[in-house]
Write a structure and sequence with these properties.
Blueprint (H helix, E strand, L loop, with lengths): L2 H64 L20 H18 L2 H18 L5 H28 L6 H14 L7 H21 L5 H6 L5
Helix pairs in contact: 1-2, 1-3, 1-6, 2-4, 4-5, 4-6
């Protein structure tokens, strides 16, 4: 090999090493940028998902309390009653108002859940935010049961015997208003909502969707 050829080989090797160094530096930078993005953007997403999950846990406990058949004297008395109501009618309507009264004691919690909906939607998409609408749907279902039972119990308080069809409707609405049915449809709905938000948390914790997340994929289960 002539000196000229030897110099050309050295130059080629040097150029290759320089290119490899650039590629390696680029890869390190890419992982560094992704780690930074995960640290800042991913952390924000995780904090948001954790906040939502905490609120849904609290809401599940509150809904259990709202629907508890256990009560105390005077519950429902915050309802604005009509002066013309007889004691029997007032008692029936107050009883039907118990769930709403209990809800009102925790209205701030459900306000926080509604306020969080659009931030959650922006980070995780419309499909993931459906849990918020469905939580509202559960509350509305309980409110509807309250109104329906108020009408039914008011009629019964006046001494009128309900028809078999009316008794069936009363049983239907009481299964929403009170807990304890087996199966309890409202409990099942709320548990499903909580599990959905839990799933969102688990996906973020695993680092899914980022280059850094590749490093977190378990090699075996």
């Amino acid at each position: 090999m002539t000196p000229t050829e030897y110099a050309a080989v050295i130059e080629s090797v040097t150029a290759f090493i320089e290119c490899a160094a650039i590629v390696f530096a680029s890869m390190v930078a890419a992982f560094g940028i992704d780690a930074w993005r995960r640290e800042h953007v991913g952390k924000r997403r995780l904090e948001l998902a954790e906040e939502a999950l905490t609120l849904f846990y609290q809401a599940r406990d509150v809904i259990t309390m709202i629907r508890s058949p256990m009560g105390y004297m005077g519950e429902g008395s915050t309802r604005k009653s009509d002066p013309s109501e007889s004691p029997e009618v007032k008692e029936a309507l107050d009883k039907a108002y118990v769930a709403i009264e209990r809800y009102n004691e925790h209205v701030e919690l459900f306000g926080k859940i509604r306020a969080l909906k659009y931030r959650f939607m922006a980070q995780f998409g419309v499909d993931e935010s459906k849990s918020f609408d469905e939580m509202d749907g559960v509350i509305n279902e309980i409110f509807r049961a309250s109104r329906q039972l108020g009408s039914c119990w008011k009629s019964m308080s006046r001494g009128r015997e309900p028809t078999p069809a009316e008794l069936e409707r009363i049983r239907k609405w009481e299964s929403v208003f009170w807990s304890g049915e087996d199966p309890d449809v409202i409990d099942q709905k709320v548990d499903a909502l909580v599990k959905r938000v839990e799933s969102t948390n688990q996906q973020i914790v695993k680092g899914g969707g980022t280059l850094f997340g590749i490093l977190n994929v378990p090699l075996w289960k």
